[in-house]
Amino acid sequence: MTGAWVGLAVLALALAWPVPIALSKAAWPARAPGTALALWQAVALSGGLSMIGALLAFGLTPFENDLGVASNLLSGHLLDGALPTQTGALQIVSLAGAVVLGVHLVLSLATTAANTARERRRHRALIELLSSPLQGSPDTRMLDFPAPVAYCLPGVRSITVLTEGLVRVLDAAQLRAVLAHERAHLRQYHHLVLLAFKAWNIALPWFPIANRAEKAVALLVEMLADDDARREVDDASLATAIAIVGSPWRDVDPAAAPIAADEIVPEADPETLGARVSRLISPPGSLTRAARALVLASGVALVAAPVAVLVALL
Known about the structure:
By secondary structure, the protein is α+β, with helices and mostly antiparallel strands. The chain has a domain at about 130-285. The chain is about 65% helix and about 5% strand. The chain is built from 12 helices and 4 strands. The chain has a 4-stranded mixed beta sheet with strand order 1-2-4-3. Helix 7 (about 170-185) crosses helix 9 (about 210-230), helix 7 packs across helix 10 (about 235-245) and helix 10 (about 235-245) runs antiparallel to helix 11. GO terms for molecular function: metal ion binding; metalloendopeptidase activity.
């Protein structure tokens, strides 16, 4: 199965550098953020499976390309040397690398999920202690803080957090836009998508594409939430609300805050804010149905290729 491991290695290399670079620089994702988000997920999943699959397929070449045969032989004869004559150190290292990489990625996802859940529980405990429910909206909490801040906390009972400073500076339409935006994040489970890409970045900190992918996906989920909010308010109100919420507020007097600023929410990325506001001020045309179908089909094909090879090896 030489062709299999070579093909997967080429695919893994393509998905590790040129494809993510091109996708992150492309203009069309702003026209179809949901489609682009699906493609990013396909790229990440296929990239990981291709790396593992290429290592497995190469390592299994002396073992009839069968993982079961390799497991039996390696477990029984690794030390006494009774292995196929073609077996070399590279094949053994390749098989070990596939196992280590797979376990590392899974453990990174599990650890990131556990740490994130713990941080959210702690954050929620602070918010419930220092805030009060918004009248008529028990799932929205009002925090006595002078800066304009809004965000959501996913959980068994998800909540949206607003600050007094935000409510003071927004008009009714802008406030509706902010609430609709944050609730869209919760309804569409954007936190789970972001968690997966955060785990990928943590697992491969030396991998520059992982960081680029995490940033691109963060922008796409914001655009998706913006599109949801646009169904309730006009683009101008939403753009103004985004600019206000994203305005710098690190110069707020610490004595005026009930907790440290970093305990509330990280400062927004100016580049992300600029892209979101520009998209609302000058809306790009929608991607055609045929183009969307082509992108989605490409994503399915990307995932199907390594899956098919891995199934064949089992």
